[in-house]
Amino acid sequence: MAQIIFYILIGLMIFQAIMLVRDVVTHREDLGPGSWLISGIIGFIADFADTIGIGSFALTTMMLNITKQNKDDRKLPGILNVGHALPVLTEAVIFVTVIKVDAVTLISLIFAAIVGSWFGSKFVTKLSETAVQKWIGWALLITAVLMLLRQTEVLALLGKGNTAMGLTGGKLIIGIIGNFFFGALMTVGVGLYAPCMAMVYMLGMTPLAAFPIMMCSCAGLQPVASINFIREKAYSRKIALAITIGGIPGVIIASQFLMNLDISMVTYLVIVIIFYTGVQYILKSRKTALA
């Protein structure tokens, strides 16, 4: 199963690369705002952080907001999903292991997340700037809370004593429905890792089983979500490509050298900043609505 998933991930990497490069080349005269260098650094930092467990979406949103790279908040969900797709696929390829999760459970939940991202991305591309700002703001607040729960090991306690490596019957159906919604929510900036982990734990699976499910769900859904964002031109080409270019070496370096780094204090600082950024986006959506 791990080998099959490995080859599927390689196929998705090729598909994503072709899709992104073709769109950038076709519209090379309209790449959008932003700095190649700054956006590339943002990609490096965010995907480095993602690889060591902090996450990338909320961190990228925060850094893009601080550096004023993105001029249109409607394109932010597209930037996140398109820009981080190849780095996340790289993560999944590097860390695919032989953890023996039940094949039906693994494939069902991955497929559910992919389908959810397809519908979610179609919905998000139609939202107004005010709606996107509001959704991103709440997504950041939810992400901050989930990161805090994960950091304080509350989520880990949910899975304490669990031994199941798969789901059957009603639990499998709940898992499929849950991952469908998590995949859809990822297209507006809510990271899938923490809610998926909590769901898997509450359904009785061992914490070990959560990792291939989370990792491969994200790696599978982002290229699919990217189709709609690219088709609808709902992303900034320069920023997304620069994030991709910077993000891949960030993943490789983090995976090779810094997996044992103690990041507790850094993570708490990131949580505070993400919460603050979320509040700022909600306030910004109210100002936009009144303008």
Automatic annotation (TrEMBL):
InterPro entries tied to this protein: TM_pro_TauE-like (IPR002781)
UniProt key word Transmembrane helix: yes
Localisation per UniProt entry: Cell membrane; Membrane
A Pfam family it matches: TauE
Record-annotated membrane-spanning stretches: 6-25, 37-59, 79-99, 106-124, 136-158, 170-194, 239-259, 265-283
Keywords carried by this UniProt record: Cell membrane, Membrane, Transmembrane, Transmembrane helix
Organism domain of life: Bacteria
Mode of membrane association: Multi-pass membrane protein
Primary site of residence: membrane
Family stated for the protein in its record: Belongs to the 4-toluene sulfonate uptake permease (TSUP) (TC 2.A.102) family.
Protein name: Probable membrane transporter protein
UniProt source species: Enterococcus xiangfangensis
Biological classification of the source: Bacteria, Bacillati, Bacillota, Bacilli, Lactobacillales
